[in-house]
């Protein structure tokens, strides 16, 4: 398992659809409010831990390592990102910097 103490802060809420690869898709809004969709090639569980939210409620949180496909120039490349999942609410977040995903184009939106 991955060390869950060094994971960057969750920065943006995303939607994940699909059950198993290769049918997993991630969608998020860019700064203009346009929906961007990305294909998730891999989604691997890296670890779980208990966290306390702002209302001081303890909840179980899962961290996943993902490989997300994007179009850069004329090639499809993959970016590795950490995703945070809260099973009690069913919400997903991307951890750390995500601007590189939005700078490159989602090949689905081309």
Q: Could you estimate the helical fraction of the residues in percent? A: under 10%
Strand content: over 45%
Strand order of the largest sheet: 1-2-3-4-5-6
Task: Please tell me how large the radius of gyration is.
Answer: 14 Å
Poorly predicted segments: none
Structural class: mainly beta
Strand tally is: 6
Count of alpha and pi helical runs:
1
Which key terms come to mind for this protein?
110 residues; 5% helix; 1 helix; mainly beta; globular
Give me a quick take on this structure:
This protein has 1 helix and 6 strands, in the order E-E-E-E-E-E-H.
Write structural notes for this entry:
- This protein has 110 residues and is mainly beta.
- It contains one helix and six strands.
- It has one helix spanning 99-103, and strands spanning 10-17, 24-29, 35-52, 58-72, 75-86, 91-95.
- Strands 1-2-3-4-5-6 form a six-stranded antiparallel barrel.
- The longest helix has 5 residues, at 99-103.
Task: Give the arrangement of secondary structure elements.
Elements: E1 10-17, E2 24-29, E3 35-52, E4 58-72, E5 75-86, E6 91-95, H1 99-103
Antiparallel strand pairs: 1-2, 1-6, 2-3, 3-4, 4-5, 5-6
